[in-house]
Design a protein that fits this description.
The structure holds 2 protein chains of 2 kinds.
Chain A: E1 2-10, H1 14-27, E2 30-32, E3 39-46, H2 49-61, E4 65-74
Antiparallel strand pairs in A: 1-3, 1-4, 2-3
Chain B: H1 5-27, E1 45-50, E2 59-65, E3 68-74, E4 106-109, E5 112-115, H2 118-131, E6 136-140, H3 146-160, E7 165-167, H4 174-184, E8 201-205, H5 209-212, H6 214-225, E9 231-236, H7 241-245, E10 248-251, H8 256-270, H9 276-282, E11 283-287, H10 291-295, H11 300-306, E12 312-314, H12 316-323, H13 328-335, H14 339-350, E13 356-360, H15 362-365, H16 370-384, E14 393-396, H17 403-409, E15 416-417, E16 421-422, H18 426-435, H19 451-458, E17 470-474, H20 478-481, H21 485-488, E18 499-504, E19 516-519, E20 528-531, E21 536-540, H22 553-567, H23 596-599, H24 605-617, H25 627-632, E22 636-637, E23 641-642, E24 648-649, E25 681-684, E26 701-706, H26 722-727, E27 733-735, H27 737-743, E28 750-754, E29 759-766, E30 776-780, E31 808-814
Parallel strand pairs in B: 6-7, 6-17, 8-9, 8-13, 9-10, 11-25, 13-14, 17-18, 18-19, 26-30, 27-29
Antiparallel strand pairs in B: 1-2, 2-3, 4-5, 4-19, 11-12, 15-16, 20-21, 21-22, 23-24, 26-31, 27-30, 28-29, 28-31
Helix pairs in contact in B: 2-22, 3-22, 3-24, 4-16, 8-13, 8-14, 8-16, 13-14
Classes of the chains: A alpha+beta, B alpha/beta.
Chain lengths: ~80, ~800
């Protein structure tokens, strides 16, 4: 289980931003906080850090998303490093 | 643990509150005070620390529970990052917990590293030094904390009477130092990151902040999202993630930057756009030689015969004559930029209403003309008057968390003393001896070997001039970072009489050849102080214990000094017969800080050493803040001067009246350490010359090396973070699509890259993370299994001695079965 707090900043093109927001909601792994202007605080909760990373990349590449910042990450629940 | 729903709820709530707070802060104006509430993590305590990675100096909040770091969050009270962290920063807690942490001292016996006790390790090391101190060298880095670097410097220069101490920062920012010193008379940026909040134009000189300094880059992106106009111009040799955001991407030929800067100057002069009043009031002109000498300049080797760090005075007429040949048409030929691009750059500088920030890092510093290009970029800002206003000036960035604090300010270089003093200067040596309470003459005037020469001496037998036979490495990994590795590191294998000691946290390419390995504490496992790229000194306090027998590098240095003291080395005593690192408790009794059990005990060793060092910093107006002030702050930018009301004020901009307390009233700008002793900065002419090695018929490609977003430098720390390692598991070579097609190479194919110094097999990546122009290759240096520095060139800037990792000649082909090691 991996839990991260992210800030997704949407572009100022309203239709593209709306489509991006809808896509993020439809993904089913993000919990939304209160929107602040173009910024969407979200919690990403996944089974593994690997999955978390994939979702992060998906967000970053999504049309209508200008930027993804990380505010918090829980290390407590990650598995031991195999190295 | 993950199955506990209450716990999950808590963490979810903590994550959301942190994200919401950050979103709110990003949307607020920069002047609005930040909110500092922390996420709730049950049973954890939070404390602040600077990030362990790059020179940006972001602050993180670190949550600790039961002796372990369990969460990190961006520190919203920190001016540098305002709550943001990059992908490396938010994984910084995990660097402590790789499974292969070094936890016990290891001594090589019969070819194998075997565990030994600390007492034996310290004894072996001290006796090795005692036997021949003049053949011993200390090699550290910009990851040393300020107290660690200060102790190492005092141990060497004040104790052993030897200047044979160097940092790896010689490899990353030495050209910035010589650039500042020869332009302003004193090192380090006059400005700060606040510039990024005010600039109209951000000009990147071979700099990729989207990957190397992402939090600073976010400040620019964030302004654009708020609707502000910020023009981003990327002068580069290959397209990067930064280029994707740039308004203008200007792909130049390697070394083209010298021609570009001179061309901007030529256009300003020819077009009557020199800021005459500014220049007449605040600047003098400088060059290596008279104009005629440059007319017959025959190349880099020739330039080295007459170029000097400090040059000589010239007139504006001389300067005009020197830059005259750098017309846009001529500079286009030298640099690879178009005439239109060169005119656009000059037009920006010609517009005094704009505010322009120039940023650079390794692209300009790892350069055989590194000092020269630093001078020239300062010069175009001075010549055009784009200097001294917030958002308007040149600023170098650094790659390590304390390259500025520990290397440049503490002076852990072979020519320097703390506080910007120099070993060659008799008055400076006397001052240092006085502050260290040493007998007169203890500090040697002889400059030690710079990094490249030091490792060459170590890798050369004594009968062939190799007069360094023992090196102690702390907090760095020269086995991966030295250029031309076969010659400057791996050759040690052939000389069993040479002895290598390495203090580190994980096994590395350097420990592989070590004779003695000492396990070190890392980041919040110890107390420390760093100094970032904008003169900000930052303190943190130990939060968790180091694993096993790992101990602070600072303790290791002091323990060895004490063992030498006990062996009778006279340098380990001051002139009153006290131990070099004598510390007393409140009652005046000596505290045995060389014993581990006493190190974090009656006295705060870090505070004491920092305060000892602080006395040096007032000599050249680099007054760092008192330790107790740093404990409270998220770093303070020097000079930090006490006001009449007893509070301490930092200085965001040096040399500027009304901001820098050392500038006299009525001066406007005052370069009070001016080379010419008249409070003026120098506008330099330095020539464009081709680099020492260029592609030819045998080696037709340019080879460039550097970093990637996910990994920090040699990957020693980031490769232990599963998320980062999985994101970027191994090195590769970037190849242009056209070259790949011509050679029948596809992405993922193993290819052989070869230079005159070595060869390497690694997978090709076509138009991948970065995009090379045809004829250009790029390899990141983070991968310890793919040591790309077997390929690189040790040729270095004649003044800064910093090698050029950004350009050498290489060839490329698909790997044959025999090229690949089993």
């Amino acid at each position: 289980m991996a839990i991260s707090g992210l800030v997704v900043t949407l572009v100022d093109d309203v239709p593209r931003a709306a489509r991006a927001e809808a896509a993020i909601q439809a993904a089913g792994v993000f919990t939304f906080g209160e929107p602040i202007g173009p910024r969407r605080p979200v919690v990403l909760e996944t089974a593994s850090v690997e999955e978390s990373r994939r979702w992060h990349e998906w967000l970053s590449a999504l049309d209508g998303v200008a930027q993804v910042d990380v505010a918090f990450v829980s290390l407590e629940e990650e598995g031991e490093d195999e190295r | 643990m993950s199955g506990d729903p209450n716990r999950r709820d808590f963490l979810r709530s903590a994550a959301l509150s942190a994200a919401t707070a950050l979103a709110a802060q990003q949307g607020s104006s920069p002047a609005q005070p930040p909110r500092v509430e922390l996420p709730i993590v049950p049973d954890a305590t939070w404390d602040k620390a600077p990030c362990r990675f790059c020179g940006t100096g972001c602050h993180v909040q670190v949550a600790v529970k039961e002796g372990k770091v369990v969460a990190v969050a961006g520190d919203r009270a920190a001016e540098v990052n305002k709550g943001l962290l990059c992908v490396k920063g938010y994984h910084v807690g995990q660097i402590l917990y790789g499974k292969d942490r070094l936890t016990t001292p290891l001594l090589r016996k019969e070819g194998k590293l075997v565990p030994i006790e600390w007492a034996e390790a310290i004894d072996v090391l001290a006796k090795r030094i005692h036997k021949a101190p003049e053949r011993f060298a200390f090699y550290g880095s910009g990851q040393w904390t300020i107290p660690e670097g200060y102790a190492a410097n005092k141990f060497m220069k004040g104790g052993l009477g030897s200047n044979q101490i160097e940092p790896n920062a010689r490899l990353c920012m030495a050209s910035a130092v010589t650039g500042y010193v020869s332009t302003f008379g004193v090192d380090e940026p006059y400005n700060c990151y606040d510039d990024l909040d005010h600039a109209d134009v951000v000009l990147l000189w071979g700099n990729n902040p989207a990957e190397m300094h992402p939090v600073l880059f976010s400040r620019i992106v964030d302004r654009r999202i708020r609707g502000e106009k910020v023009e981003l111009i990327d002068i580069c040799t290959r397209r990067t993630r930064t280029s994707d955001q740039a308004d203008h991407v200007m792909v130049m030929k390697p070394h083209g930057d010298l021609a570009i800067a001179n061309c901007i100057a030529q256009q300003l002069v020819a077009g009557g756009k020199v800021a005459t009043e500014f220049v007449e009031k605040y600047c003098n002109f400088r060059a290596d030689a008279e104009p005629a000498r440059y007319e017959k300049l025959a190349g880099w080797d020739d330039y080295k015969t007459f170029g000097t760090l400090m040059g000589k005075a010239i007139t504006f007429a001389d300067y005009k004559q020197m830059v005259a040949r750098y017309t846009p048409e001529a500079a286009a030929e030298m640099s690879g930029l178009s005439v239109e691009q060169l005119k656009l750059l000059a037009a920006r500088f010609a517009d005094r209403k704009l505010k322009i920030v120039s940023l650079w890092c390794m692209g300009m510093n790892q350069h055989t003309m590194g000092t020269a290009i630093n001078n020239l970029v300062h010069g175009v800002h001075l010549l055009s008057g784009h200097f001294g206003r917030p958002g308007d000036g040149p600023q170098s960035l650094t790659g390590q968390p304390s390259a500025c604090g520990t290397v440049r300010e503490v002076g852990t270089l072979c020519h320097a003393l703390p506080g910007d003093l120099k070993v060659e200067d008799a008055e400076h040596r006397t001052k240092a001896e006085e502050l260290w309470n040493l007998p007169a003459g203890r500090i040697s005037p002889k400059i030690g070997y710079h990094t490249v020469l030091l490792w060459e001496k170590f890798c050369t037998p004594a009968d062939k001039g190799g007069d360094v036979d023992t090196i102690w490495v702390q907090v760095t990994n020269p086995g991966q970072t030295m250029p031309n590795l076969h010659k400057l590191f791996r050759a040690k294998e052939k000389h069993p009489e040479k002895f290598l000691i390495v203090s580190d946290v994980y096994p590395t390419a350097t420990t592989e050849l070590a004779d003695l390995v000492l396990p070190s504490a890392l980041w919040v496992e110890k107390t420390g102080v760093y100094g970032n790229s904008e003169r900000r000194t930052q303190q943190w306090t130990k939060m968790v214990p180091p694993p096993g027998q790992a101990r602070d590098d600072l303790w290791q240095t002091i323990a060895v000094a004490r063992r030498l003291h006990d062996l009778g080395h006279p340098g380990m005593k001051d002139k009153d017969g006290k131990f070099l690192f004598h510390l007393a408790d409140e009652k005046g009794g000596a505290v045995p800080i060389w014993e581990w059990d006493s190190f974090y005990g009656k006295v705060d060793v870090n505070e004491k050493l920092y305060e000892d060092y602080r006395r040096f910093t007032t000599i050249k107006h680099k007054d760092v803040a008192p330790y107790r002030e740093l404990v409270r702050a998220r770093g303070l930018r020097w000079p930090v001067v006490q006001k009449p009301d007893g509070t301490w004020a930092e200085t965001p901009y040096r040399f500027v009246e009304g901001i820098d307390p050392y500038v006299a009233a009525g001066k406007g700008l005052q370069f009070y350490h001016s080379v010419t002793k008249d409070d003026r900065a120098l506008i330099w002419f330095r020539p464009w010359v081709p680099p020492p090695e260029v592609p030819d018929g045998d080696y037709p490609f340019w080879l460039d090396t550097g970093r990637v977003l996910e990994h920090w430098h040699t990957g020693t720390l980031t490769s232990r973070v599963p998320n980062l390692r999985r994101a970027m598991p191994r090195s590769y070579v970037e190849v242009a699509r056209e070259d790949a097609a011509a050679l029948g190479i596809r992405t993922g194919d193993l290819v052989l890259v070869e230079t005159r110094r070595g060869k390497l097999v690694l997978p090709a990546w076509i138009d991948g993370r970065g995009k090379c122009p045809p004829g250009h290759l790029f390899i990141p240096f983070f991968d310890e299994r793919q040591l790309c520095n077997v390929l690189t060139l040790e040729a270095h800037c004649p003044f800064s001695k910093q090698p050029d990792y950004k350009k050498c000649a290489a060839r490329l082909r698909k790997a044959a079965p025999g090229d690949v090691k089993p």
